[in-house]
Amino acid sequence: xxxxxxxxxxxxxxxxxxxxxxxxxxxxxxxxxxxxxxxxxxxxxxxxxxxxxxxxxxxxxxxxxxxxxxxxxxxxxxxxxxxxxxxxxxxxxxxxxxxxxxxxxxxxxxxxxxxxxxxxxxxxxxxxxxxxxxxxxxxxxxxxxxxxxxxxxxxxxxxxxxxxxxxxxxxxxxxxxxxxxxxxxxxxxxxxxxxxxxxxxxxxxxxxxxxxxxxxxxxxxxxxxxxxxxxx
Length: 232
Prior knowledge:
Layout: E1 3-5, H1 7-10, E2 32-35, H2 45-48, H3 56-70, E3 76-79, H4 91-95, E4 101-105, H5 111-114, H6 119-122, E5 123-127, E6 129-134, E7 137-142, E8 148-149, E9 152-153, E10 156-160, E11 163-167, H7 173-188, H8 192-195, H9 204-227
Parallel strand pairs: 1-2, 2-3, 3-4, 4-5
Antiparallel strand pairs: 6-7, 8-9, 10-11
Helix pairs in contact: 7-9
């Protein structure tokens, strides 16, 4: 069983990871993929997440092409929410074109289109949360951020000048990049590495929200450091 997933593999503009040789399929081996937040048909996601497309149609076609270049017809794909949103095309227009046996885990943007389809026709399962084990690994599948789950926990931590700033935002690669870019800007004065080259595509809503929160926090931290004769 091979594992790979996320927007990095299925959603980038250009070649998929499989085409670049990062994933090697052996014979008729079935590969399991994990992905989320495609937002098929969603106009404003291009601007809010800095996706490198000029139109929704261009984005949709690129996502479909990259998906099918990577995923075989018998592969398993676990879709962790926000599959489509405000799409003008019928959901079936996307679903019928995408390879693989699909498992859907509903996100906050899925109600709009999900009510229009027959789930049993298109999905192996539909859940909001699912726990399972494969070998020695345990997996918790859910669209929403979780601080802990059976057998594990998740926290994003930045340590700075003997203090600890905890930020939790693991609901998608672009959102995590938005948080990281804001931290880089506030703590180091430089966020360019996260915007350069289109590799991370920070979610600008998360970037602005985190910047606003950090801007309130940083004066307190600076005053505290100044009282101790330190610099940030």
